[in-house]
Specification:
The protein is about 55% helix and about 0% strand. The protein has about 375 residues and is mainly α. It has eleven helices and two strands; from the N terminus they run βααααααβααααα. It has a two-stranded antiparallel sheet with strand order 1-2. Helix 3 packs antiparallel against helix 10.
Length: about 375
C-alpha cells in the first residue's frame, strides 16, 4: 500500500509542525544558556555544566527535530512512506505522553516559571494530538498502487535484516540490563525513575529517564524483530531506533574521552568498565544499523507487464503464441483469431499475476489488420 497525494501533503505538514515546536524549545534553551557549547555540554551530562537557567530539552529533542525534517521531506518525495509516518507518530506519542502528568507537578515549581510550564503543557497536548493525527493519516490515506511504475515499500535484505536483529536486539538487552541494575541498586527511586518526581530530574518537555530508556529498548526490540521478518515497516522503525540510540551513547563516549576515563580504563571499577563497553557497543551497533538500513536496494515495484511471455507472443491483439516465420504451423482451424465467440480461447492465454490482459477489461480487442501467418 502507498499513500495518496493528499495524505502525503498532510503528513509532511504535520511533521513540519512537530519540527517547528521542537525548534522553538531548542532556540529558547540556546538563548537561556548563552550559546550552543554550554547547551551541548548539558545534553552530554558534563558535571561542570553550570548554567544560569535549567534547559527544557535534551539531546533526544535534537534527534526528534532531525527525524521530523527527514520524514517530512521523505513523505513528499516517496509515496511508499506510510510506515515512516506511523513510526514517527508512535515515537512522538511515547516520548511526549509523560509530560501530561509531569509538567504540572511540584518538582517543576522550583526549576521553571509558571508561564514556561503553561506553555509546555499546551505544547504537550498539541504534540500528542499531532502524533495521533500522523497515525490516522497513514492509515486512512493508503491506497493500492495504480500501475506498475509506482514504487512500493522496500523491505530490508536478508543479510541486513539479520544484522539489524542481532545488533538492535543486543542493544535492547543492554539497555534493559542497566535499567534493572538501576532500580535494584536504588529501589527508592523506582517510581520517580519511570513516572517522574523529585528523585529523578529531567527536562521540562522530556520524559523521565527510566521511561525514555524503556521506550528505547522496546523500539529496538520491535525494530529488530520486524527486520528479521523483513517486514515492509522494518526500515523506518530500524532507522529511527538506531538514530535515537546513537547520540546518547556517542555523547557518553566523547565525555569519557574528554575526561580521561578511557585512558585509565584498566583502573576503573568493573561496573564502570561495563558501562563504557555498553556505550561503545551501542554506538557501533547504531552506526552499523543506520548504514545497513539506509543503503537502499533496487526500487520496489509491482511485477512488470508482459514479464515471462513466450518469445512468439503477439502483444498487439492477443491471439496467443504466434509462431514466427518457418517455426511451425499456424493457428488451428476452427478456433478463431480473436473475435468474440469464435473459439474456446479467443484472446490467447488467460491473464496471470505476471501477465496482465493486453487490452482494457470489458472491451473486445480490435480486429487484425491482416490474417496471421498460416491462414
Amino acid at each position: 500500500m502507498i499513500l495518496t497525494r493528499g495524505a502525503r501533503i498532510t503528513g509532511a505538514v504535520l511533521c513540519a509542525l512537530l519540527a517547528l515546536i521542537v525548534a522553538g524549545w531548542i532556540v529558547r534553551d540556546l538563548g537561556a544558556v548563552d550559546g550552543p557549547g554550554h547547551l551541548l555540554r548539558y545534553w552530554t551530562d558534563y558535571e561542570d555544566a553550570r548554567l544560569p537557567e535549567v534547559p527544557t530539552t535534551s539531546i533526544d529533542d535534537l534527534v526528534l527535530f532531525v527525524m521530523y525534517l527527514v520524514v517530512a521531506l521523505t513523505v513528499m518525495r516517496v509515496s511508499a512512506a506510510a510506515s515512516a509516518l506511523v513510526a514517527t507518530g508512535v515515537l512522538t506519542l511515547a516520548l511526549r505522553l509523560p509530560g501530561l502528568w509531569n509538567i504540572g507537578t511540584s518538582p517543576m515549581d522550583g526549576m521553571y516559571s509558571d508561564e514556561l510550564r503553561t506553555r509546555a503543557l499546551v505544547c504537550a497536548f498539541v504534540v500528542i494530538a499531532v502524533a495521533v493525527a500522523l497515525i490516522i493519516t497513514a492509515g486512512a490515506g493508503r491506497r493500492p498502487p495504480a500501475d506498475f511504475s509506482e514504487q512500493v515499500p522496500i523491505r530490508p535484505g536478508q543479510g541486513a535484516g539479520v544484522l539489524t536483529f542481532l545488533l538492535l536486539g543486543a542493544s535492547a538487552a543492554t539497555i534493559a540490563a542497566w535499567q534493572i541494575r538501576t532500580v535494584v541498586r536504588f529501589p527508592e527511586i523506582f517510581s520517580d525513575w519511570y513516572l517522574g518526581g523529585e528523585q529523578a530530574s529531567h527536562g521540562l518537555i522530556d520524559p523521565p529517564l527510566g521511561w525514555a530508556g524503556a521506550v528505547n529498548a522496546l523500539l529496538c526490540l520491535f525494530a529488530g524483530g520486524s527486520a528479521l521478518g523483513r517486514a515492509a515497516y522494518a526500515r523506518p522503525f530500524g532507522l529511527i531506533a538506531a538514530g535515537l540510540l546513537l547520540p546518547g551513547a556517542a555523547g557518553a563516549l566523547i565525555r569519557s574521552l574528554d575526561q580521561g576515563v578511557l585512558g585509565h580504563f584498566g583502573e576503573l571499577p568493573t561496573e564502570s568498565q561495563l558501562l563504557v563497553l555498553s556505550w561503545t557497543f551501542e554506538a557501533i551497533a547504531a552506526l552499523v544499523v543506520l548504514i545497513a538500513l539506509a543503503v537502499r536496494g533496487p526500487a520496489g515495484h509491482l511485477a512488470q507487464p508482459y514479464q515471462g511471455y513466450d518469445p512468439g507472443y503477439e502483444q498487439g491483439y492477443g491471439y496467443g503464441p504466434v509462431p514466427g516465420p518457418g517455426t511451425g504451423p499456424g493457428p488451428v482451424p476452427g478456433q478463431g483469431y480473436g473475435y468474440p465467440g469464435s473459439g474456446p480461447s479467443p484472446f490467447g492465454a488467460p491473464p496471470s499475476p505476471d501477465r496482465p490482459p493486453p487490452f482494457p477489461p470489458h472491451q473486445p480487442p480490435p480486429p487484425p489488420s491482416q490474417p496471421p501467418p498460416g491462414w
